[in-house]
Amino acid sequence: MNILLIDDHPLFLEGVRHVLLQLKDDIAIQTCGSCEEALALDDEDVDLVLLDINLPGMSGLEGLQQIRHRLPATPLVVMSASEDRSKVLRAIELGAKGYIPKSSTPDIILTALQLVLSGGVYLPMAVLDTINSSQAKTSNTDGQTLTPRQVEVLKLLAEGHSNKSIGSHLSMAENTVRVHVSAILRFLDVNNRTEAGLAASRMGLLEEVEN
Which end of the chain is more exposed for a tag (fewer CB within 10 A), N or C? Predict the structure, then answer.
């Protein structure tokens, strides 16, 4: 497995390298100190990209877009000291499959990367909590809450729509839909979309959307 790690802090690079070697057997790690250096590489045989968005030269978000364009099938995860909500959401909208704060423990980093490699999207719970607390909320019958946007996603999910279809209906990026679906599954304490629809119906959430 080939991993491209883009960061300009030597101590962090060394620490993350040690964590990444625990991810799978036969891991090869290539490091770059800037987006420009990464984009100049000839080798496109990359299975995972880890990118800091606070880099010298080209901004991390601009670099994210260019790297995603060059490696469209390769999952890219942002690892940053910043936990600013707007940066997190912007990174996901631009195609990042996850956002891991540099303050995360090795176990959390490994769990997040395993989720991404299995096709999921990872966001830190603190960021999800901030998103939920900063928006108007809709209560269910147990006094718990989902944001209005999440309830809209839940209704379409319960109707059998795919993430792509939900994104089209709500004018949202598919990655953003995935983030909402993951939050909904955690909120309902279920394992899949079918169970989510049944649980939401039982709790009266779908009725709130229709009224």
Answer: C
- The reply to whether the predicted model has a pTM over 0.85 is no
Q: Which of 142, 149, 148 is nearest to 199 (CA)?
A: 142
Say if residue 158 is in the same domain as residue 184: yes
Total domain count for the chain?
2
In this structure, which amino acid lies at residue 59?
A: S
Whether 128 maps to a domain, the answer reads: no
- Name the pLDDT band for 139 (thresholds 50, 70, 90): low
Could you read off the pLDDT of 119-136 as tens digits, one per residue? Answer: 888 887 655 555 444 443
Q: Indicate if the pLDDT at residue 193 is higher than 90.
A: no
Distance of alpha carbon 186 from alpha carbon 145, whole angstroms? 12
Mean pLDDT, to the nearest integer, of 31-41? 92
Give the start-end residues of each E strand in the chain: 2-6, 28-32, 48-51, 76-80, 98-101, 138-139, 145-146
Q: Report d(CA 53, CA 7) in Å as an integer.
A: 8
One-letter amino acid for residue 9 of the chain: H
Residue-range definition of the domain harbouring residue 114: 2-123
